[in-house]
Every structure is written in structure tokens, then in C-alpha cells.
Amino acid sequence: MKQLSSRNSLELFNYCHYFRAISFFEKKIFKEAKKEFKLISPNFKFYYKVNFSLGEIALEQGDFNIALSNFNEVENLSKDFYDFKKSTVFHNLGLCYLHLEKYDKAEEYLFKSAKLQEVQKDTILLIGSYMDIANLYYIQYKDDEAIPYFEKAYHLSKKVKSFELKQNATLNMAVVEENRKNFPLALTYRKEYEAWKDSLNDQNKVWAIADLEKKFAIKQKQKEVNVLAAENKAKIAERNGFLISSVLLFVLLGTGVYFYRQKIRSNKIILAQKNELDELNATKDKLFSIVSHDLRSSVNALKVSNSKLLDNLESKNYTELDVLLHKNSSIASGAYNLLDNLLNWALLQTQQSYFYQESLHLSSIVQHVEYNYKPLMLNKNISFVINVAASDYVFADLDSLKIIIRNFLDNAIKFSKENGTISIYSRPASEEFCYLVIEDTGLGMNEARRKELLKETILLSKKQNDDIIGTGLGMQLCKSLIRKNEGTLDIESEEGVGTKIIIGLPKFKNHG
């Protein structure tokens, strides 16, 4: 950048300092960022972004009057920019006025920001606006006006993935309930806050979270069992007192029959709960067993390969070094995919994943996923063909659709030989569904294996061949996500010829 900016071109000079400033800004080195922004000429094409960034730096450093001046410059622009959100400018102006204790102006701008975000359905920014509006009222002791916005922010935070937003919204609710003297509810929010805080500190502790959830579920069921046991004891005591005071055989017999039936019903409830717990534990135990086996195999393979790397490095056998490095990359990629699928499966099972169905352009999604897999296909010299109809729009959740396509494309690459071909194309759509086909010229499978993969099952499939077949976690995840999107799955395959994965997704019928 320094070399480029030394040339006699004002435009190039501006771009160089702009990119350097943005780099410092992203790393929160604000002093250097300000220095670079100040070197940019006011006639720079993107000077409105310079003003906005300087405003954010001033806001971060507590120079609220300076921040206000910068944000006003941006607000006064008559032109709307495609890469800029007016709601963010309004929100930042509101924060400046809030810190300067100009509450009327702060209220005006925060509400303008929130209204724009509601229209744009920008949930994440809207949560922040609601919390700031609530804080505005709260510091003015207008609790009745503040609390509804704290509650709105809390309920909206349930729909987003950001652990930080969930944590802040929950903490606000805890403080609100403490001030109301509603300590049991405040304690509930505090516990939820601690849970999100733990998630924010280390989102990779999937095993610990799963284990805690398992223990929590067992404790909950145990509490229910204890309650039922206590109820049974109370009923038995009541029955005994009644029997002692009763002198009639008919009353004694009737009471005995009644309590006997109650005991049978209670035992049935306890047995059903125990069976449900056993099924949950069996599923998780099998998952842990399969995945831990695969991870241990991957780590062991890396250890062996690294040992060979050292030997070949010593002997300067560069040909073998290249082979081993590619092998290590493949092992690491497989382990990463396994962990990624495990995290998505855990989120799906605990109903923590964000899910929102909308109109999606199928061809664009496929091209976006393809970009990440080009290097893998080039490594195996695999030809790749896309022929997805440009007119196909589906009604599905974006994240889960990408996970489905990634898993099936990853399998197609894994099962394909050198110089093979992978094709992704559309089949003629029906009245209700669009059909996406992922076809490879790989190993294929027999009919028994095909039927086994399509079975509806809760438990995971154990692998059959360590070199080729995986844990079945990816296939199980795909089937669950397709079912959640109200789609269909079919497989056509022949050993030695290849496999076709046919995914049916609901059409978006209102697309103009």
C-alpha cells in the first residue's frame, strides 16, 4: 500500500489509505485508523464511509460531539447508497444524544432507526435498537415504558444465532425482575444468562453441552419421579387413615381398588418416562461412540503420517512428502466436516438452530456452494457440470439448504475416482416440488445399501468400511433437514457406475 500510494495518482492514494484505515479499524487500532482516514481527500468517491467510520471511532472513544458531527454529515446526504444502511446512522445518532443526555433527540433517532429496521426485517439490529430504547427510558426512571422494550428485545433474541445478543437480552430481563422484586423469575433469567455466557465463551464445547443437557434431562425426569413418589406416599397415608376410621368392608374394598388403580397408572407414567430417557441416552451414547471412534482414528492417522513426514523430511524424499501432506490435508478436512455435522446435528436435536423458510434462487445457491469445493475437485481432476434451471425458486431455509448440498457434494467427491465427473442439474419440476439432482460417476452402491440409507431412523448408522463409508451422521443430518423443509429424498445408484441423489424441495409459488 505504501509503494502504491507513493505514485502520482490521487485516486490510488485515497484507495490505499482507505484500505489501510479499514484494516486498522477492523483490528480496533483506532489511533492508526484515524490517522489514515484523515489523509483521505474529501472528494474521494466513498468519503461518506470515511465520515461514518470516523464517527464510530469517536463513539467508541467517548468523543460524542465529534461522533455527532460525523454522523450528521452522513445523514445529510440526499443520496441512498446500496452498501449503507440509514437505520445504522439513525441508531448511532441516537446513541450520541443518549450519552450527551439529550434524551428527546435520542428518543427521536432511536425510534426512526427501529422503524426502518422493522420494515427491513433486520432482526439483529432491531434487538440492539430495542435495548437502547429501553435503556433510554430506564435511566430516566420511566420503567413502565422501558420494560416492554426489554421484553421485545428478549423475545426477538430467541430467533437469532448471536449468543452475545441472547446474553445481553437475558441479563436485562434479570435486572428488570430484580428491580421488580420478582426474585424467582430473576433467578431463572440469571441461569439462562449464565448458559448463554458459557456458550459465548466457548462455542466449541459441544461434548460438554451435550453432557450437561443429558444430566439436566435426567435430573428433570428424576424430579418428576420424586414428585410422583411423594404424591403416592401422600395418597397411601390418606388411604391408611381412611381405612383405619372405616368399619365397613365395602368402603375398605372400594378404597383399596381405587388406590390400586392409581398406583398402576403412576407406574405406567414412570415406565413411559424411563423408556423415553433410555431412548434419548441410547441415541446420544451411540453418537458419542461413533464420533469418538472416528476422531480417534483421524488423530491416530495424523500421528502416523506426521511421523512419516519427519522421516521423509530427514531423507529429503520430497515426492513422498507431497503425498503425505495431501493425505494430512484430506484427514484434517474429514475431521472438520465430521465436527461441523456434529455441531449442526446437536443444534437440530436441541432445537437451538435458527430456521427461517424464504424464497431462494436454487441456481445461485448451488454456484455459491460450488465455489468452496472447486479446489477439492481439481485435486482429483474431476469434471464439474452445473445445469440448474434459472427459473427454479424454492421455499426453504438458506443455512439448512447449504448444509444439505455441501454434504451430498462432499460425498460425491469422496466416492468419485480420479478423472471422474460430477453433475448438478434440475429435473422437470412437479406442481409442488423442484427437483435437484447431484450425480457422480463414482463407486455406486447395491440395492440393500440404498434402501438402508433411505430408512427413517432416529439412531445413526455405523460405518461399514473405514476407508470409504463415514459415520452416517451427514446423511442423518441431511434427512432431518430435508424433512424439516418439507422436502423429499430419493437415491438412484448402481455399483461401479455411480449415484444420483434426488432432492425435492417445495416451490415458492408466489414468485413473480
Multimeric state of these chains? single chain
Order of helices and strands: HHHHHHHHHHHHHHEHEEHEEHHEE
Q: Write down the Rg.
A: 31 Å
- Report how far the terminal alpha carbons are from each other: 46 Å
The residue-averaged pLDDT reads 80
- Report the strand count: 7
* Number of separate helices: 18
Give the total of domains: 3
- Given as residue ranges, the uncertain stretches (5+ residues, pLDDT < 50) are 460-469
* Main sheet makeup: 5 strands, mixed
Strand content: 5-15%
Describe this structure in words.
- By secondary structure, the protein is of the alpha+beta class.
- The protein has three domains: 2-201, Tetratricopeptide repeat domain (Serine Threonine Protein Phosphatase 5, Tetratricopeptide repeat, Alpha Horseshoe); 207-315; 354-506, 2-Layer Sandwich (Heat Shock Protein 90), CATH 3.30.565.
- Helix content is 69%, strand content 9%.
- It contains 18 helices and seven strands.
- It has helices spanning 2-5, 10-26, 30-38, 47-61, 64-75, 86-99, 103-120, 123-139, 143-157, 163-179, 183-201, 206-245, 249-315, 318-349, 362-379, 398-415, 447-454, 473-484; strands at 357-361, 383-387, 393-397, 421-427, 433-440, 488-494, 498-506.
- The protein has a five-stranded mixed β-sheet. Strands 1-3 form a two-stranded antiparallel sheet.
- α6 (86-99) runs parallel beside α8 (123-139).
- The longest helix has 67 residues, at 249-315.
- The two termini are 46 Å apart.
- 26% of the residues are buried.
- Mean pLDDT is 80; it is low at 460-469.
- It is found in: Cell membrane.
- TPR repeats lie at residues 87-120.
- GO terms for molecular function: phosphoprotein phosphatase activity; phosphorelay sensor kinase activity.
- Its main location: membrane.
- It catalyses: ATP + protein L-histidine = ADP + protein N-phospho-L-histidine.
